[in-house]
């Protein structure tokens, strides 16, 4: 429509009519003369509005879902972080409890043997000075550690100190092929020398080729002159096999160590020797033998052949 005087006059007239209808509708309330027209318009345009609303709602719902999905993702990520932190805390507590248990066991051994020890933690394994079976501990010269000191844990003999730094030290494990320690049989005076064989049992050569030894017998360290490198009475292991005596001057034994060299964590370095040989007092209590079940068989006499009638005849 072109902008003319007639078009402007028509626009003003339509606006005036609209205001008049609004005034009449407001004053009429529910009995408004335009109510029927309004209902008719609602019946015509209502379905169209519902259709438009139905078409628009999925889009709005999708936008809301995306927004809520982001919130859920954030909550999930937060919960995952909290769970990871809780697991790490629980793992740390488990490790602390394990170390406390090891330390308690170590102190028990030190108390029985009257060993003055310096506690240390294993911080590295192997590859030191060319030795194949070694550990590095977090104690050194600053802690009073010296070369050729005995190292033990709550189970028994671990090894001896070979190299000392200011804050760390290298320990040669008893399982190393270059390791040798003097041993004594429990409840006796049979002496020998135990040598490491890597992940196999220790090999022990008894000085007495006719010594009476059996599987299950136990050994402790004999001790060295001036208690270096070994103090006496430290548990070494249990005899697992005895070679037949062939009339040799020595007798060969194979001994399973008390110490698990692949699970070392808390150890103790003996910095003060006992005043007297503890002998066998440091050895753990022997396990109770498993009772062998006995079977009692009761024999019930069977009736003679032929039955009672034939016996009477």
From TrEMBL:
Keywords: Cell shape. Residues 273-313 are annotated as: Disordered. Residues 130-270 form the Rod shape-determining protein MreC beta-barrel core domain. It comes from the Bacteria. InterPro entries: Cell/Rod_1, Cell/Rod_MreC_2, MreC, MreC_beta-barrel_core. Involved in formation and maintenance of cell shape. NCBIfam families: PRK13922.11-5. Belongs to the MreC family. This is Cell shape-determining protein MreC. It comes from Streptomyces althioticus subsp. attaecolombicae. The gene is mreC.
């Amino acid at each position: 429509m072109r902008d003319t005087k007639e078009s402007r006059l028509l626009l003003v007239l339509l606006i005036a009519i609209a205001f008049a209808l609004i005034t009449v509708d407001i004053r009429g309330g529910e009995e408004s003369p335009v109510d029927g027209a309004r209902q008719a318009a609602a019946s015509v345009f209502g379905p169209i509005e519902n259709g438009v609303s139905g078409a628009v709602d999925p889009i709005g719902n999708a936008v809301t879902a995306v927004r809520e999905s982001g919130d859920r993702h954030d909550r999930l990520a937060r919960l995952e972080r909290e769970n990871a932190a809780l697991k790490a805390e629980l793992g740390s507590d488990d490790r602390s409890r394990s170390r406390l248990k090891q330390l308690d066991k170590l102190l028990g051994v030190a108390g029985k043997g009257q060993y003055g020890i310096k506690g240390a933690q294993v911080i590295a394994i192997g590859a030191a000075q060319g030795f194949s079976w070694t550990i590095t501990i977090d104690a050194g010269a600053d802690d009073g550690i010296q070369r050729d000191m005995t190292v033990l844990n709550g189970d028994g003999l671990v090894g001896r100190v070979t190299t000392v730094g200011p804050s760390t030290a290298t320990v040669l494990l008893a399982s190393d092929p270059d390791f040798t320690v003097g041993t004594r049989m429990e409840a006796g005076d049979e002496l020998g020398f135990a040598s490491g064989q890597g992940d196999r049992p220790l090999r022990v050569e008894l000085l007495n080729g006719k010594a009476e030894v059996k599987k299950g017998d136990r050994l402790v360290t004999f001790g060295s002159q001036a208690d270096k490198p070994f103090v006496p009475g430290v548990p070494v292991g249990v005899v697992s096999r005895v070679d037949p005596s062939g009339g040799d001057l020595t007798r060969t034994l194979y001994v399973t160590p008390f110490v698990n060299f692949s699970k070392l964590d808390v150890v103790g370095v003996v910095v003060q020797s006992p005043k007297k040989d503890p002998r066998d007092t440091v050895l753990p209590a022997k396990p109770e033998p498993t009772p062998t079940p006995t079977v009692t068989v009761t024999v019930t006499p069977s009736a003679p052949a032929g039955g009672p009638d034939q016996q009477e005849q």
